[in-house]
């Protein structure tokens, strides 16, 4: 049994999906970890980088948050009594829509050392696939990342106002409720004809991209699979409509995209 | 001389600074590159991952953009006639404030294959250092990334309106003009007392963080060094004021920060 007071919990960004889009620091930590707590959606190839570690799935997808989160917090605190190198893997970057603060607070209150290893968020990997920059000179100088996910019973459209005010927007955890998202955006003044690129399973072999508009995104999202998706909105994507129309395109042809 | 038609130009995110915050894919590409075009600010330890490659500094900092950019574009196109594996390294992620689109367009027009490797943007590494999540449940559901840098002679405050509409904001290339930034934000309705964290030399040993407010950021920025800095604004940083007051804190003590 190791010294509990030398334990460190590493909150580590697992990146967008592809195993080689982990950071070098994350890969090295996984090779040393004694236990790895991971979300349900993490690529098994990433977990294979820690064959020596005990694996604990702390799966949660939509819904049932607070109970699950409190239980995860407790598991992390308990692990620090037993192990020295504890890795908590989170998809993308831990500090963007990863509920990291709840785990940081619980660990800090328990006096446990924390280190955070940043990761590549899905928006950046999706931009790389599309070969379309989030910011562009004279066209996009502000980029907002938002999530429409709401606490139960609340109706708070500040996220939609933030999207309306920025030049480019990336929505996380939005594709599953595309009809409400579309309506909220149009209500806040986002033009219905603005181009939307929905990219599913970013950076993985099975990635797919659908090009549509703010007004048509609910229809487009019906053809999505069950993988996580980012919804990207902005004038910077307008040229993709001519190239792709509304067809699905496979990553194997680099999404079939040339330049504008 | 290699086959020009098999050349690929890789636009690669160099990450926030620390060499082990490169992605695994980026590190492997550097080890295979025949030539590396890099910005002036890239960490020499990152360049050392490509000892076999010819190094071409395409340094540019503020000002004199379009001429320099056209020359970089030409250098990349020319390199594809001579080499097969060409790496264009860009700080952070290439698709956020990296002027990637101008290089993508030039290369695409010349019929040259491009691949883009995403990277960790400075905002994420700064959040990891501060142990403060960009998004937080019930407090911050939208995060905007913006730059106040303007084309010469233009006065365009849409970036400031986007900041005012989002819960958390990260400004790139802003610390050097903190007085105008402060004035523009207050003009667009951002509360002067909102907390600002300015993080310089993110992820490097010499990193420093200054906590101030939107109203006081011009004063705070005077004590910055010459390294690149991100300016982070939002209620999520409010607790840092009690912890740090307005003192510089070294990364060696993890910025001296506990939880809220």
Detailed description of the structure:
The structure is a homodimer of 260-residue chains. With 260 residues, chain A is an alpha/beta fold. The first copy, chain A, folds into two domains: 4-117, Cobalt-precorrin-4 Transmethylase, domain 1 (3-Layer(aba) Sandwich); 122-251, Tetrapyrrole methylase, C-terminal domain (Methyltransferase, Cobalt-precorrin-4 Transmethylase, Domain 2, 2-Layer Sandwich). Chain A is 30% helix and 21% strand. The first copy, chain A, has nine helices and eleven strands. In chain A, the strands form two sheets. A six-stranded mixed sheet of chain A has the order 6-7-10-8-9-11, sandwiched between helices. The first copy, chain A, has a five-stranded parallel sheet with strand order 3-2-4-1-5, with helices on both faces. In chain A, helix 2 (44-47) links the parallel strand 2 and strand 3. In chain A, helix 3 packs across helix 4. The radius of gyration of chain A is 19 Å and the shape is elongated. The termini of chain A are far apart. In chain A, 51% of the residues are buried. At the A-B interface, helix 1, helix 4, strand 5, helix 5 and strand 6 of A face helix 1, helix 4, strand 5, helix 5 and strand 6 of B. Strand 6 (142-146) of chain A pairs antiparallel with strand 6 of chain B, so a sheet runs across the interface.
Overall spatial form of chain A: elongated
The tally of structural domains of chain A comes to 2
The CATH superfamily title of the largest domain in chain A: Tetrapyrrole methylase, C-terminal domain
Please give the CATH architecture of the largest domain in chain A: 2-Layer Sandwich
Chain pair sharing the greatest interface: A-B, 71 and 71 residues
Strand order of the largest sheet of chain A: 6-7-10-8-9-11
- Please give the number of β-strands of chain A: 11
Strand fraction of chain A equals 15-25%
- Weakly predicted, low-confidence segments of chain A: 245-254, 256-260
* Sheet of most strands of chain A: 6 strands, mixed
Distance between the termini of chain A: 59 Å
């Amino acid at each position: 049994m190791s010294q509990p007071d030398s334990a460190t919990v590493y909150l580590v960004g697992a990146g967008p999906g592809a195993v080689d889009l982990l950071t070098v620091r994350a890969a090295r930590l996984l090779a040393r970890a004694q236990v790895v707590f991971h979300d349900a959606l993490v690529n098994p190839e990433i977990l294979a980088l820690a064959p020596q570690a005990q694996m604990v799935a702390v799966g949660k997808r939509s819904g049932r948050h607070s109970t699950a989160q409190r239980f995860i917090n407790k598991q992390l605190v308990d692990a620090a009594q037993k192990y020295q190198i504890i890795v908590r893997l989170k998809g993308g970057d831990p500090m963007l829509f990863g509920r990291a603060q709840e785990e940081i607070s619980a660990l800090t209150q328990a006096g446990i050392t924390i280190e955070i290893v940043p990761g590549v968020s899905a928006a950046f990997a999706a931009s790389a696939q599309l070969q379309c920059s989030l910011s562009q000179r004279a066209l996009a100088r502000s980029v907002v990342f938002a999530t429409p996910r709401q606490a139960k019973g609340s109706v708070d459209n500040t996220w939609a106002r933030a999207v309306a005010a920025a030049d480019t927007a990336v929505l996380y955890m939005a594709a599953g409720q595309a009809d409400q998202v579309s309506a909220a955006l149009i209500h806040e003044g986002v033009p219905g004809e603005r181009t939307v690129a929905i990219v599913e399973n970013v950076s993985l072999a099975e990635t797919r991209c659908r090009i549509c508009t703010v007004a048509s995104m609910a229809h487009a999202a019906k053809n999505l699979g069950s993988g996580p998706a980012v919804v990207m909105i902005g004038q910077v994507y307008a040229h993709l409509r001519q190239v792709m129309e509304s067809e699905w395109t496979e990553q194997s042809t680099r999404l079939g995209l040339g330049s504008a």
